[in-house]
Amino acid sequence: MNTAGAGPAAGAFEDAEPETPFGPQGRSHHSWERYSLAISLAVGIGLWWLVVAVTGLPRFVLPTPAEVVLRLVDYLPTGQLQTHIRTTLVEALLGGALGLAVGLASGYLLAKWDVAERLVAPYLVASQSVPIIAFTPMLILWFGPGTVSKVLICAIIVFFPMTINTMVGLRSVDAGLLELMRTYRASRWQILRMVEIPSALPMVFGGLKVSGTLSVLGAVVGEFVGAKAGLGYLVNYAAFQLDTPLMFVGLLALVVLGVGVFTLISLVEQRTLRWMARGRH
Amino acid sequence: MGRSAVLELSGVSYAYGSGPLATPALRNVSLTVNGGEIVSLVGPSGCGKTTLLKIVSGLLQPDRGEVRVNGLTSRGVHAGIGCIFQTPRLLPWRTVLSNVMLPLEVERVSRPQARMTAERALALVGLKGTGQRYPAELSGGMRRRVAIARALTSDPAVLLMDEPFASLDAISREKLNLEMLRLREATGKTVLFVTHSIRESVLMSDRVLVLSHRPAAVRREVRVDLGPQRDLRVQDSTEFTRLTAALREELDYGEDEERRRLDGEPEEDGA
Fold it and tell me: What CATH number did the domain enclosing A198 receive?
């Protein structure tokens, strides 16, 4: 983090930067850049089509984009896709929220209390070295194939990056600012609210961006192992039926979900950390 | 200008660590700062000036001796002190105005009231109209002014300044020196000012206290009779030259003495 105390003359040089053609503002002046996403999608779909056309692979191995779209159009009126999306989304959001809450709390404890780190660190590392998919059958055995087991899987997956990022964020708080608050005779709560949380936020958002997509992944992993609904269940089910176009529908829905969650978090981050863009230009 | 003592230190000693490994930092320091006075502390680098300020503020508790602010001692940070540090210590995520409001927010002053006070303080240091900018958008000198404005909002009895302008260029520094004199005229603030610049100490203060090498003790007190209203031309006066020369000699003398002490030590050990 660039603190305000940095070099006194630095501002004079930074002011000149937005004028350069390589700055982020300069790039958007090329008209084609505005359509870059559309172009990249078009090229990707074109290549996909080309591969099917050239290799002549059968529909159950690799369907054409058109076949996938037709399957989607066919499938939408049944309302099942929406149900699966809702199931996965609810699991990922609830689990993510739980993992976030526990991660923030334990990150705070670990940052503030050295003993906690020594006691908990082995478990943290152990939990991280066992792949979540190895846990999953146990969780489903204990909590059943419903929502609860998936929420727990998501929470466990989100917990680790949130804990670490919160801890590192809180530990990197400028000691000078803490001393400043002490000279105001600020309470612990005031110091947390006015200095520690805002200081740690960039790190916490970094953790959130990683966790958001991980949470969707956790829900899908759970659904693969045992579930009655959800996009993971849908993909698994379609695979058994050799209904590859439907599998692709499920995968595309997952992509949209993951990108959506990531974009949402990024937008909130941009709004919250607007100060970081100011002055750095 | 009140002549009563706002800040009193009597027999203050402090050591870092304890037992045989303790490093003494302050040795029997006594000093008084009266209401409306600016007193400078000069001394060789690393002599314990910052430690002394931390004790005065109450961030550190002395091993021996007593600190009184407005006649009161305290177990923790004293009420009625305002600190200005070597770096401005602004919160980068807050606007300038919101930074200046910080101490009032801690004191739970109502928002409109805090806002008014902060805006007045900003105007006082010549930063009217910059309230909505962020610290990163300001020059080094302007950030120092924000830190001064912030310290003024809670109307402290004593301002403690720890080499606040040390990292600034010479021109910004002189400007801010005069600004402080002007502020003293306007607000009647009592200031304890730590610096390693002899010029700065003479230009700004009513009295200069020379500290010895670590562990620091007050070595000498020099009264600066240049009048309350000063400008940069005061530096050309013979009185100014005489004072800076005397202080420099005092510091050099201390250094020689220190060198003799250090040179002497191995022989003592060998004996």
Answer: 1.10.3720.10
**Parent domain of A173:** 82-230+262-277
CA–CA separation, A137 and A96 (whole Å): 20
**B30 in a domain, yes or no?**
yes
- What is d(CA B204, CA B101) in angstroms, rounded to the nearest whole number? 27
Report B:93-112 residues touching A (Cβ under 8 A): 93-94, 102-103, 105-107
pLDDT for B216-228, tens place per residue?
888 888 888 887 7
Residue numbers of A between 192 and 221 with CB closer than 8 Å to B? 194-195, 198, 201
Within a domain: A161: yes
ipTM: 0.85
Residue B196: which domain range?
Answer: 1-77+189-264
Alpha helices by DSSP H, listed for A76-196, are 80-112, 114-129, 132-143, 147-171, 175-183, 188-191
| Gap between the Cα atoms of B179 and B97, Å rounded | 20
Instruction: Assess if residue B211 is contained within a domain.
Output: yes
Report the b/e string of B106-119 with b at 16+ CB within 10 A.
beebeeeebbebbb
Find chain A residues with C-beta within 8 A of B154's C-beta: 184
Of B145, B143, B139, B102, residue with least CA distance to B126: B145
Q: Using the Cα atoms of residue A266, residue A270, residue A276 and residue A280 in order, give the sign of their dihedral.
A: positive
The answer as to whether B145 is a domain residue is no
- pTM for the structure as a whole: 0.79
Pick the residue of A17, A173, A179, A183 with the most B CBs within 10 A to test the interface with B by mutation. A183
Out of B87, B141, B172, closest to residue A5 by CB = B87
Give me A270's structure tokens. Answer: 């941009």
Chain B contact for A178 (CB, 8 A cutoff):
no
In a domain, A55, yes or no: no
Cross-chain Cβ contact B135/A279 below 8 Å: yes
CATH code assigned at B219? 3.40.50.300
pLDDT band for B261, please (50, 70, 90 cuts): low
Domain count, chain A: 1
Of A8, A177, A186, the CB nearest to B168: A8
User: What are the backbone dihedrals phi and psi of residue A26, each rounded to the nearest 5 degrees, phi first?
Assistant: -65, -35
HSE-CB of A213 using CA atoms within 13 angstroms: 13
